[in-house]
Amino acid sequence: MSRRQGSAAVRQRNGRAQAPSVALPPVAATAPLRIAAGTLEAMKWLGVVLMTLDHVNKFLLHYQYPALYALGRVAMPLFVFVLCYNLARPQALEGGALHRVARRLALFGAAASVPFIGLGQVIGGWWPLNILFTLLVATLVIGLLSHRSQLHTVAAVALFVIGGALVEYWWFALAFAIACWLYCRQPDRLRLCVLLACCGALWWANRNMWHLAALPLILAAPHVEFKLPRAGRLFYWYYPAHLGVLWLVARTG
């Protein structure tokens, strides 16, 4: 009897014939969210239109039209989502895009502070900082979290706590931004639930639930495609410019 036949006989006598091992394929992670560039531009344009209507109603018409106020609550979640989608791209940190976005937000946020203060949107001379600074703090927090080290995480938590107290929409907008970033990186059910919860928590900033109307637009974005050219830095310029125009009209009207 050969050695192979003897081994088989021993396994048979022991009543446990061994099957060859099979290597199971690794479980693939959920692919990052994919949205067409034109669709992202459409979301930004929609946010600009809704924001402008809301600001005209607020600063020039003194909240005469409640429907415009309600529609205006949709703008901020759209801007936050588009920003965080772009920050979730793999090349955002390595290619320096995150740092460029942060510099632009700081520059144009500072420029917008003059008409923002002039329109009476601050308490005590400077607080809160305008929405571009909200997006700036969110960008910096996400940048720190991207490093995945204990030191960077501690710094991100500290910036979240301190920065959230200084900007519009406070910590609720920052939490929503982080949830959007995590979801765009890996759009699974758990992260979607976190995104929905953080969007609902914006009630503490808005004192209404109209911002939830942004969720169907966000969830539908990967499934539709618009053909719109990129507007470049137009959106950065538009925010301080339109506040400046509203300030002048309010002062001379």
From TrEMBL:
InterPro entries assigned: TraX
Transmembrane segments: 21-43, 63-85, 105-123, 157-183, 189-205, 234-250
Name used for this protein in its record: TraX family protein
Domain of life the protein comes from: Bacteria
Lineage: Bacteria, Pseudomonadati, Pseudomonadota, Betaproteobacteria, Burkholderiales
Annotated keywords: Membrane, Transmembrane, Transmembrane helix
One family name in Pfam for this protein: TraX
Organism of provenance: Pseudoduganella chitinolytica
